[in-house]
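Worked Example 4.2. Read the sequence first, then its structure tokens.
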Amino acid sequence: MNLLSVEEIAKRFGERTLFADVTFGLDQGQKMALVAKNGEGKTTLLEMLSGDTNPDTGNIVWRNGISVGYLRQDNPFKEFKTVKEVLYGSDNDFVRALNSYEFAIENPNDDDAMQKALNLMDASKAWDYEAKIDKLLSIFGMDSLGKNQSIDLLSGGQKKRIALIKLIVDEPDVFILDEPTNHLDISMIEWLEEFLSGQNITLFMVTHDRYFLTRVCNQILELDNGSGYKYSGDYEYFLEKKAEREENLSAEIGKAKNLYRKEIEWMRRMPKARATKAKSREDRFYDTEKKAKQKINKDELQLSIKAERLGGKIVELHHVKKSFDNLKIVDDFNYTFKKGDKIGIAGKNGVGKTTFLNILMGLEEVDSGKVITGETVQFGYLSLIHI
């Protein structure tokens, strides 16, 4: 089911065109990442989707009845005073049911109000709402804050986490997220990855965390040199197809330059008063000139991967053999170290325990087989020093 249709939108600032003719759609359950170099219009596009600003031309159409939640980079809580007001101030079924229930408790003689409140609580499953908020506050390291804590006294990172919690409990139909992993530690990011990967979550986000993007998103929209390009696949697939696109564009520019050199001589020879056919050729000349003078921006798109973040691959040993003369350290040894493993190595003196550790660290070559280490793995090695 299509939730969003974006048709040929453009945005200009003065004489500068930020982007033009950008077209894409978002279906229910799709998770799309927006990637671009700095200054290409990522935040502007997010603001358009959220309704904060309008395109100069083109259309942005949301399906009727769709709720959209937007996680901003800046502080969205200027009208709130406390954490409680943020988390319980939303206009959703849960909060309406809770407010109705609180009113009924404060008016015990109003039986109709109590029955209505109980029905609303059951229908919206609001009984678990406060427990859900408390759980999220704990997950995002905010449980030590009192709910009457002033928002103004929170750090920028704490405000961003409260905004993320509020968005999750609001349960919008579509999440629009601007750098959601900023100010989160590894365990928080991993929880968010699992949550956003849910089948019923529809997502459009900007992130500079390549690992997070790859784990969560199945669609990529790139803004490049004022145009939009959509890719169905992960980040590695995007890089492959982007390289192909730039290679094809480079070939087209090369052909246009050759044609331009020929046509410019014709333009110089032709008189100002031209026949209809000549005028048509002149129009094609200007199209060719535009293509020939196009430049491919070779600046790299920078998406980072946090060095301390462990991926799924830690260390794998495949058919490893190592020996010194007649002493076999390992012989056709296979093992895959998993995240969270705690393994001890036991053996008599001289059987090769330290050699095995050096093999894991890449400090000792194996006789045969492979030792494969995950790209984000960093070793901390405390060796025995003889004094």
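Now turn to a second chain, presented in exactly the same format:
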Amino acid sequence: MMDEVKRQIANDLLKIRAVFLRPDEPFTWASGIKSPIYCDNRLTLTAPAVRNDVESAIAETVKREYPDAEVLMGTSTAGIAHAAIAAHLLGMPMGYVRSGAKDHGRQNQIEGKLERGQKVVVIEDLISTGGSVIEVVNVLREAGAEVLGIVSIFTYGMKKGLERLAEANVRNVSLTDFDTVCEIAAQQGYIAPGDAVRLRAFRDNPSDESWMNGVTK
């Protein structure tokens, strides 16, 4: 069942170009790293059929993987809409965590009611190196919440991200992942069959640009 969901969501993201693969004309990340993949899961919000698949899958994943969850908390800003829709489907409360505390009013960083000891699942759209979502987990833990884990739409599965999540002792379950997207993309002709190997070489070591020349180690 999980593999079916991974393939369905990968297909959805490729279809609406929320995940866009361009190994021969790489994108440049803010860090300067050349990337063959661009991911913008906000596009799922403007594609109702895909949005339905994604939000239903998030809700089902929360029920299956974190049955004791009491509150969903979205990451700011990309995870907020997904947390809100999934919480609506589940009949659960939701809130979100700002990237920093407000400088006015009550100076909240956590928006929405959260009691100490409540069991929380964090909803995130995308995990690469894991830094931003772990900050959210830490804010919630400092507020006294019990963070059961994360549900994300897509994860790169980068070594740095996996190590950070392990160090923070937080579990992530993604609807789909880099390898599944590459597999579906090759099957459906979005990329040449040999490009999947180059893409995985990028994922394994983003700072090594040898994949750009078709060289893989």
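Notes for the reader: Helices lie at 2-15, 48-65, 80-90, 131-142, 159-167, 178-187, 195-204. The beta strands are 19-21, 27-28, 34-35, 37-39, 71-75, 94-97, 110-111, 119-127, 146-155, 172-177.
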